Structure formats: structure tokens, C-alpha cells
């Protein structure tokens, strides 16, 4: 689940939770479905941001030249 999908689920869950005036339709409670979508969207967003942070970290530079590694190096 990507960041965009998570934000969509959060928005849809918020609309179903707080903007829909009917409580239930054909035995399904709309407010409960909205709450579930909110929770799933927030958890998905946090996981997506975590993995984005892990994969976007820059690794340190590897220096193989001894002259650059040690300032007192004399060949």
C-alpha cells in the first residue's frame, strides 16, 4: 500500500465516520466501516513512510585512497 492509497483510505474513512448522517445501511454500520478505514489508512501511511525512510537513506562514502583516509600519510 502506497502513501497515496493510505491518504485516500484516511479521507474515505473520515467521510464515512463523520459526514454520513445515516447510521447503517442493510445491516452494515457505516460509522464502524469509516473507523476501520481510518485505522487501516493511518497504519498503512506509517508503514509506507517508514519504508520510504529506510530505502531513501544515503549510505556513507567509501574512501579507498590511503592519502584521503589519513592526512599524515606520506608515500
Give the N-terminus to C-terminus distance in angstroms.
Answer: 55 Å
- Determine the structural class based on helices, strands and strand pairing: mainly alpha
Mean pLDDT metric: 83
Strand content: 5-15%
Which radius of gyration do the C-alpha atoms yield? 25 Å
Number of helices: 3
Unreliable spans: none
**Total number of beta strands:** 2
Order of helices and strands: HEEHH
Shape: rod-shaped
Major sheet summary line: 2 strands, antiparallel
Structure description:
With 75 residues, the protein is mostly helical. The protein contains 3 helices and 2 strands, in the order H-E-E-H-H. The protein has helices at residues 3-19, 30-56, 66-69, and strands spanning 24-25, 28-29. Helix 1 (3-19) runs antiparallel to helix 2 (30-56).
Protein topology:
Layout: H1 3-19, E1 24-25, E2 28-29, H2 30-56, H3 66-69
Antiparallel strand pairs: 1-2
Helix pairs in contact: 1-2
Salient structural properties:
75 residues, 2 strands, two-stranded antiparallel sheet, 64% helix
In short:
By secondary structure, the chain is mainly alpha-helical. It is rod-shaped.
Amino acid at each position: 500500500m502506497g502513501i497515496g492509497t493510505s491518504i485516500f483510505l484516511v479521507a474515505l474513512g473520515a467521510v464515512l465516520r463523520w459526514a454520513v448522517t445515516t447510521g447503517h445501511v442493510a445491516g452494515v454500520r457505516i460509522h464502524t466501516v469509516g473507523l476501520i478505514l481510518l485505522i487501516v489508512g493511518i497504519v498503512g501511511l506509517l508503514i509506507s513512510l517508514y519504508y520510504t525512510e529506510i530505502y531513501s537513506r544515503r549510505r556513507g562514502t567509501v574512501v579507498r585512497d590511503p592519502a584521503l583516509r589519513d592526512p599524515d600519510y606520506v608515500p
